[in-house]
Design goal:
- By secondary structure, the protein is mainly β.
- It is 0% helix and 48% strand.
- The strands form 2 sheets. Strands 2, 4, 5, 6, 9, 10 and 11 form a 7-stranded mixed beta sheet that branches. A 4-stranded antiparallel beta sheet has the order 1-3-8-7, with no helix packed on it.
- A hairpin with a 6-residue loop joins strand 4 and strand 5.
Length: 123
């Protein structure tokens, strides 16, 4: 069973930056990874994803140009660099793994989930 652990969340002022990490207990080469978030009282939404090969990425419109997803398969870790943060980015952020999503990534049918890391954007 692949285990995922998110880290890097915290409190940041509007306009600030954070880098989230998603560390896996095993090899990630065969997994697409998605970042999701859930704000209080709202449904969970897909934020960004990256294919197992790293060749394909996707971003929600709300974060395009501000967030960057990347991966280091040698370290079994996926990152989400978040810049120009806004109060509406406040949420618990989760990463999830999609087995065999090597060439393309998506936000459905995820096989493994982390427990989340909270991000609060506030002055």
């Amino acid at each position: 069973q692949l285990q995922l652990v998110e880290s890097g969340g915290g409190l940041v002022q509007p306009g600030g930056s954070l880098r989230l990490s998603c560390a896996a207990s095993g090899f990630l080469d065969l997994y697409g990874i998605g970042w999701f978030r859930q704000a209080p009282g709202k449904e969970r939404e897909g934020v960004s994803c990256i294919s197992g090969s790293g060749s394909s990425t996707n971003y929600a419109d709300s974060v395009k140009g501000r967030f960057t997803i990347s991966r280091d398969n040698a370290k079994n870790t996926v990152y989400l660099q978040m810049n120009s943060l806004k109060p509406e980015d406040t949420a618990v952020y989760y990463c999830a793994a999609d087995y065999l999503a090597v060439q393309k990534c998506g936000y459905y049918g995820m096989d493994h989930w982390g427990s989340g890391t909270p991000v609060t954007v506030s002055s």
